[in-house]
Amino acid sequence: MKAIQFIRNSSEEGSATNIELPRPKATGRDILVQIEAIAMNPVDYKVRPAESEPPKVVGFDAAGTVVETGDAVTLFQEGDLVYYAGDVTRAGTNAEFQLVDERIVAKRPTSLDAASSASLPLTSLTAWESLFDQLGIDPETPDDNSGESLLIIGGAGGVGSIAIQLAKLAGLTVVATASRKESSDWCRNLGADHIINHHEDLTPQLKSLGFETVDYIANFNKIDGIWEAMAEMIAPQGRIVLITGHQTQLDFGGTFKLKSAKICWEFMFTRSMFQTDDMIAQHHILETVAELVDRGKLIATVNRSMNPINAKNILEGHRRLESGTTIGKLVLSGWE
Ligand SMILES: NC(=O)c1ccc[n+]([C@@H]2O[C@H](COP(=O)([O-])OP(=O)(O)OC[C@H]3O[C@@H](n4cnc5c(N)ncnc54)[C@H](OP(=O)(O)O)[C@@H]3O)[C@@H](O)[C@H]2O)c1
User: Fold this and answer.
1) Residues 197-226: pLDDT tens digits?
2) Cα distance between residue 295 and residue 298, in whole Å
3) What pTM does this model have?
4) Final residue of a domain: which of 227, 244, 265?
């Protein structure tokens, strides 16, 4: 099968190559998916092989067709059109065929093509688990949630673009951060009620909108540099979810303690990495996401499409993501 393999941790030309690899075989709860389209995420460049590591096939979001099922598979059969965000501990989606555990896969939206479907899983799972599992917002009670406010840091990124939509469906007032006209417009079009700029001091901007504090903060971008601002902006007994690492020492006490703030982490790969008992929850979340898309409640956030899936385009995608300025999702489809 065709695959793209990174040979070093770089996005420069020559760091990834087009190769032929043996087609894997499905066993147990694995299904073998013939990949039609993939989406790219920052994690793709974060897991490129270090100097001491062997070459690696990366990539996580995919849409394709089930071509083989393991003997313990119960949820899918050959020919099903599926989408998923994969497992960070296994070989990635930058390949023509991929094995994936059926519990983290769902049938893709019937109203979307493969490329738009591929844009959804990783960011939808992250946004869903952040808002509804970690922050504890109830998606079923929009009327009860309507007095509550959520600050989304990094509104126009892949995760923020889905989170804005899910939070609005859940009835919240959403303040999203964006630093440019095009990213601000993008967030507004997805439903954000207010925009503030993450390259300026956030607290006074929030106050000038009439918010002394917010009930929830979903930080989908950098933590360093705005830690104290988050302590100021969160309401007493408010909740904060974080999804990225940090370089500086963070004080989890101080104002956070005085406010009894809850601070929690979201890592989309936890369930598959630790094979948690509730791993199948990701199958159900993706089913719900597909249903929301097909009912016109949620839109895919593709903002750039490239084809085919090959080393040249994958490397260009990595460079775009590394710039930290992509809006929505970047997708690749088709094989040469
Ligand atoms: N824990 C998990 O499970 C998980 C899952 C998904 C992603 N992540 C991580 O979360 C981060 C975001 O992922 P993503 O896919 O949403 O990223 P992305 O699509 O690459 O984000 C790009 C956006 O980031 C915004 N941005 C740039 N600098 C910022 C800053 N200082 N503060 C706030 N926003 C800023 C930019 O907006 P402007 O153009 O308006 O500046 C741009 O639109 C990445 O580090 C990723 O690895 C973690």
Assistant:
1) 999 999 999 999 999 999 999 999 999 999
2) 8
3) 0.98
4) 265
